[in-house]
Here is the input.
Amino acid sequence: MTQTNNNMTVNPDLAMERAKCNFNVLEVTHIFDGGERNTLQRKKIEDVALNSGASKDALGEEHMSPKEKYENAVRKSCIYATMMKNELAELSGLESFGVSSPVIRRTADAFFKEVSPFLLHLGMFVPTIMGQCTPEQQSYWLPRALDMQIIGTYAQTELGHGTFIRGLETTATYDPETEEFVLHSPTLSSYKWWAGGLGKTVNYCIVVAQLYTKGECHGTHPFIVQIRDEDTHVPLPGIKVGEIGPKMGFNTADNGFLGFDHYRIPREHMLMKNAQVLKDGTYVKVARHGKLTYGTMVFVRVVLVNEVAFNLAKASTIAVRYSAIRRQSKPKPDEVEPQILDYVTQQHKLFIAIATAHALQLCSTWLWESFSAVLAQMKGGNTDTLPEFHALSSCLKAISTSDSAHLIEQCRHACGGHGYMISSGIPNLYNFVSATRTYEGDYTVLLLQTARFLVKAYEQAEAKKPLTPTVSYLAHAFSGSRATWDNSPDGIIRSFQALAAGKTAVCVTNMRKRMRAGLSQVDAWEMSTIQLVAAAEAHCRAVIADTYRKEIVRLTANSSPNVKVVMDQLTTLYLYYWALERTGDLLMFTSVSQKDLVDLQIAYEELLLKIRPNAVGLVDAFDLRDELLHSTLGSYDGRVYERLMEEALKSPMNKEPVSDAYSKYLRPMMKGKL
Ligand SMILES: CCCCCCCCCCCCCCCCCCCCCC(=O)SCCNC(=O)CCNC(=O)[C@H](O)C(C)(C)COP(=O)(O)OP(=O)(O)OC[C@H]1O[C@@H](n2cnc3c(N)ncnc32)[C@H](O)[C@@H]1OP(=O)(O)O
Ligand SMILES: Cc1cc2nc3c(=O)[nH]c(=O)nc-3n(C[C@H](O)[C@H](O)[C@H](O)COP(=O)(O)OP(=O)(O)OC[C@H]3O[C@@H](n4cnc5c(N)ncnc54)[C@H](O)[C@@H]3O)c2cc1C
Here is the structure.
């Protein structure tokens, strides 16, 4: 029997779950959105962007050819970009549309099952103009880019190098005679590779190249480069550009390749905020910190934490709603088949996904605020906080993307066979999020950046020198005794810090041992990298746990009692889950006993049961409209089987009763005439 809810026919199991929920869902929505005002503004933006139906496709993207898919994505990008410039910019309170509204970014997902070919324009081209140009350059380029008179991308990675930026081979050689830079791709491996939108969409790009002037190489620098005619869109002479072909995801992003044959650009097209080349070819370094040209990457790493929190919220919404309507097996012969959400193993798969979406969402807001503070200090010429921030944003990017990809895959497992359907929405989420673990700095590589900082901080702690806030716990690393286990939230967080400190200490000790045995510092470091990655991961988990806990306590200070309880249950679940995932480490670095761990496992299982009645309410609180979920399994009304059948019937394979393949191949083979 079905029930109606907001004029909608709702699956009775979902209706029952909603009736069972004992907390005010809207209050939790406000927490996730960062306040009631943000929720109201988000809803307004979604109404304007989505109620017209402009986000919908007549035929599902999955049934289109690659060319049709791309053209459709461009069509919708143009519609959405026009909305962004007009109605949405006004609604979001922005003077011009752009990178500063996560809501506008998130709402775009209703238009694209994969991604927009404009993602890199707004995600990296515009931010690079904002972060790397002089004020004069900015006043020329920014209005054109924001108004989308030009469309750009960020072409840094080459066929031969992505991680190791200092190893890039594209050259930009200054010619003082003509006051131009000559861009050149000397080898196949120097071809730019991967930039989103480069294949067919953009007419400009940021190119990162090795700068040569007066015969000397000054390392990689960014340049703004026109690659296609502004009117005809034809590639300009000296440019070889194209699309790189099918990928696991991102198939509407026309990622491209780009090569230069002694291609000339004006001197002023070097982005000169951090370094300049004067007319006579003199190189002048302006920036106080050598890595400020990496600024756009740091910005995107910060943004990505928010991005993956949102995508994990989507996957957990789909999987929890589906688990409430799906009934399977008969553990008690006299009773009806239970909802699969009643299985404790299912709760174990899913509730951590909900908790992690909250943890990452709150950490992303905190990280954004820290980033704003670092930028404000740098405006005043102070770069002291940059190393700590680079270490922090590197590990948070690595762990948030990796955990989210893993948990989205776990949500797919939780949906059984139907989760494997593209129409479930989960495969596209996974394909998108698994790429975030690699791009903008690979997981291992970024954790090793954090490890560099941790080791230095450890040495400072050893020398009793002051420590920066996120590593201040290292000061306790020299007490000589193991940290005292205590299963309160604060006690568990202290234990996570003890693990990070203990693992860092082991790395330092091993590296010193290896160096005493004759290895160079580089080789001793290399031999310790497995443990260094583990130390950086432990550090990051301590930071996330601490931030999540503190933020929830702060944000629920005035919440109603039941909201306080359910938010506390989620944070506790997060802490228990990760403590139980790291029992070996806890035994090494804290006083935890076998009995403590057995008790913790029982407490965890009891917590799952406490959260169970509120599970659907918790994902409803993410307040994700069906248009954003793109899912047969996760829609608000729970009409799962109906939607699966409707989608199956849309398949072009079902257009004809007998496939052409029958007369061409099957019949001849079966009649022995092939
Ligand atoms: C209309 C519709 C619209 C709809 C849409 C609406 C849209 C709305 C738009 C908004 C939403 C957008 C969503 C986003 C999506 C974007 C998609 C992006 C796609 C992907 C893009 C990319 O994928 S783009 C390429 C990224 N490619 C990397 O990511 C390379 C990694 N590789 C490195 O990043 C370096 O290679 C690596 C390892 C650091 C070593 O760099 P290196 O060799 O130079 O340096 P060393 O290791 O020697 O380190 C020497 C010392 O520098 C220190 N240091 C290093 N970096 C530092 C730093 N950044 N800041 C401070 N300090 C730093 C270090 O800590 C050492 O410090 P110390 O010496 O004190 O220990
Ligand atoms: C979907 C997608 C979109 C992208 N978009 C863009 C874009 O718009 N613009 C752009 O410029 N780039 C883009 N990229 C490229 C991306 O930034 C790089 O792929 C990424 O930085 C990883 O570099 P790589 O491919 O060179 O990997 P590699 O560095 O070759 O990594 C391969 C393996 O080697 C390991 N490894 C490498 N170096 C070390 C080390 N020092 N220590 C230990 N292990 C190491 C890595 O951990 C990894 O396991 C995109 C990539 C993808 C997948």
Q: What stands out?
A: Residues 344-379 form the longest helix (36 residues). DSSP finds 22 helices and 13 strands in the chain. Residues 95-99 have pLDDT under 50 and may be disordered.
